[in-house]
Specification:
The chain has helices at 6-10, 18-31, 41-57, 60-78, 108-114, 141-146, 218-223, 283-296; strands at 133-139, 148-154, 157-163, 172-175, 191-197, 204-206, 209-217, 225-231, 234-240, 249-252, 258-259, 262-266, 269-276. The protein is an alpha+beta fold. It starts with 5 loop residues before the first helix and ends with a helix.
Length: 298
C-alpha cells in the first residue's frame, strides 16, 4: 500500500497553518471540481485525493495522528520493513461508518489509519457547493420593457427563466439551484442569466429614460398642431405649439422604461423635434415662399 503525502497533494509545507491549508484546498478543489471537467476520471480521482488530504490536514486530531504515524512509517521503510507489514492500527483509532465520495470510499491508506472516522459536523472534504453558472442572453427593448419568459435546455429538460421588466445590459437574473451540481449532499450552485439589450432602431436608452427624434412637417412647426409619438407602450399624441424650433425637446414624463426594482415607476421619454423641409416644391409653392421671405424682410 503506497504512502499518501497529503502535504504534497495540497502543495503546502508540513508547518503550514490552518489558513494556508484551507486556502490551498479551496483553490485546488475549484480547479479540479468535476463540474469543470465532466467525464474526466483522472480529474475525479484528483478531486478525491484533494478532499481526502483536506479531511486529514484540516482536522487537528487527524493531522496529529497522521504526522505521528507517517514518521513511524517512514522510519519503518528506512529500516527495510515491508510497507505491507506495517501496523497502521497501532494508533488505536476507533472505526465508524465511512461516508462515500462519488459512490466510493476514502482510500485504503486513509482507512488503514483512521478506519471510517470522519469529522463530526464538518465533512468539509466530502461536501462542496456546486459552481455558479452564467448564461448570456439577448433581448429586445420591447422585451426589456414588458418583461419576457425565456426557455433554456438543461440536462434534457426545459427550464423557464422570467426576465423582469426594466432589465438593462449587464443585469443578472438569478435562478437558485440551477447551476452546477453539489458534491456529497451540498446544495447546487445558481444560474445567473446575464442580459444584453439589443440597440433599437428608434429609441436610444439612457438609464431608464428613452430618447428619440420626432419628425414633424414645416407647417406644423410654424402653425402648431399635433404629432404622433411612438412609445414602447403605444402611440401618444403630442401638442406642438406654433413656431416650434428645430431641435426643441419635449419631455413626456413617465413614458420611458420601468425601474427594475419598481416596475410601476418609469423613466421619461424625450422627443427631439426634427423639422422636415418639403421636397419637390411646385412653382406656385416657390412663389409663395418667396412672397413670405419678402414679407419677413420688411
Amino acid at each position: 500500500m503506497d504512502y499518501k503525502d497529503y502535504y504534497k497533494i495540497l502543495g503546502v509545507p508540513k508547518n503550514a497553518n490552518e489558513s494556508d491549508i484551507k486556502r490551498a484546498y479551496r483553490k485546488l478543489a475549484r480547479e479540479h471540481h468535476p463540474d469543470r471537467r465532466p467525464g474526466d476520471k483522472k480529474a475525479e480521482e484528483r478531486f478525491k485525493d484533494i478532499n481526502e488530504a483536506h479531511e486529514v490536514l484540516g482536522d487537528p486530531d487527524k493531522r496529529r495522528k497522521y504526522d505521528q504515524l507517517g514518521a513511524q512509517y517512514q522510519q519503518w521503510q528506512r529500516m527495510g520493513g515491508d510497507p505491507r507489514g506495517f501496523n497502521w492500527g497501532q494508533g488505536n483509532v476507533r472505526v465508524d461508518n465511512l461516508d462515500d465520495l462519488f459512490g466510493g470510499s476514502f482510500s485504503d491508506f486513509f482507512t488503514s489509519i483512521f478506519g471510517g472516522e470522519t469529522s463530526r459536523g464538518r465533512r468539509a472534504g466530502a461536501r462542496m457547493r456546486g459552481q455558479d453558472v452564467e448564461q448570456n442572453v439577448e433581448v429586445s427593448l420591447e422585451e426589456a420593457f414588458h418583461g419576457a419568459t425565456l426557455t433554456f435546455s438543461k440536462n434534457g429538460k426545459s427550464l423557464e427563466v422570467k426576465i423582469p421588466p426594466g432589465v438593462k445590459t449587464g443585469s443578472r437574473v438569478r435562478v437558485a439551484g440551477e447551476g452546477g451540481s453539489g458534491i456529497g449532499g451540498a446544495p447546487n450552485g445558481d444560474l445567473y442569466v446575464v442580459v444584453n439589450v439589443r440597440p433599437h432602431e428608434r429609441f436610444r436608452r439612457e438609464d431608464d429614460d428613452l430618447h428619440l427624434e420626432l419628425p414633424i412637417d414645416l407647417y406644423t412647426a410654424v402653425l402648431g398642431g399635433e404629432a404622433q409619438v411612438p412609445t414602447p407602450a403605444g402611440v401618444l399624441s403630442l401638442k406642438i405649439p406654433p413656431e416650434t424650433q428645430n431641435g426643441r425637446t419635449f419631455k413626456l414624463r413617465g413614458q420611458g422604461m420601468p425601474h427594475l426594482r419598481d416596475p410601476k415607476t418609469r423613466g421619461d421619454l424625450l422627443a427631439k423635434v426634427h423639422i422636415r423641409i418639403p421636397p419637390n416644391l411646385t412653382p406656385e409653392e416657390k412663389r409663395l415662399f418667396s412672397e413670405l421671405a419678402r414679407l419677413r424682410s420688411r
